[in-house]
Amino acid sequence: MDVEEYRAARRTRLVERAVELGLPADEAGVLVDRVIEEQRRRIRRAEDPDDVVVPALRDAILVGPTGARTTTLVVLLAVVAVVVAVPIAYVTRDDSPPVMPSLFGLTTSEATRALQRDDIASRVVEVPQCNPAGQVLGSDPPPGSAVGADDVVTLIATSTPEWRCPDDAAARERAWAFLRFLVSGTASPGFAQGVRLFVDGEEVTVVGGAEAADTPGWQSVVRDPVLDYASRPAANPLGQPVVSISYGVPPPTTCGHPRATPAGAVLPSTRVVLTTGGESSTDACGLTIDLFDNVLGAISGVALYTPPRPGT
């Protein structure tokens, strides 16, 4: 791995680790840089540079050239334990490992920042697709897994393919923007002034096109069902729902529900289907969203179709 790329990705966490091991904050950055420089050759050859740098950093702090720092730390900790024996139990850190969060609907930049907030290191593996580049498709380990202090999470994300894609790039951009609007609020797919919301073919409410996804109409009708579905354990290697996007005229029924017919909408429309895997081959039906445009090309209708519950 390139040394400077590693430094940029991991220096902040390494400095925090050095402080946790007892090094004064004003010395931590200098020591981390020194250790990285000393381990440059091994970093380039290492599959995971943390396996090289973290032990070297620990040794530099706790052992040092003469062991003097170790002795100082042990004496200091013993004194603190005696003087503040009662309060020390109160301020003990929670050392339980962080849990891998759901990254569904996020871009690689958003996902990386979310993981960094939990002190989780990550790397990106790109998969060429005809979807917008930089969308997270899944992770290893999957959501809900414990992540060790020295683990590096792998993000599987889309990248631009070398082959020619169908002429539906605009629909795919809009579909992923809609998912980001629901999940993180970081995108707007272009709404009309009023947006009619449907569930299983029936109109439920009308929301303002400028309203955020966490306002009551959006949240109860669309956002909560989508996030609830996305949080289910996914029976696929990605660890999250697979997103399928198409552009055309919706069928008369979806998941056993009649097609929504927003007033003023034009066809064709953009369809987004989320599947977690595990559905039977005879009645497979994922959570489905249709995005309907008005004559001006703005989204004026959103139809959500819910899959049948197991056993129904």
From TrEMBL:
Positions of the PASTA domain: 99-156
Keyword Transmembrane: yes
InterPro entries noted in UniProt: PASTA_dom
Keyword terms of this UniProt record: Membrane, Transmembrane, Transmembrane helix
Transmembrane segments: 73-92
One Pfam match: PASTA
Protein name (database record): Unannotated protein
Species for this entry: freshwater metagenome
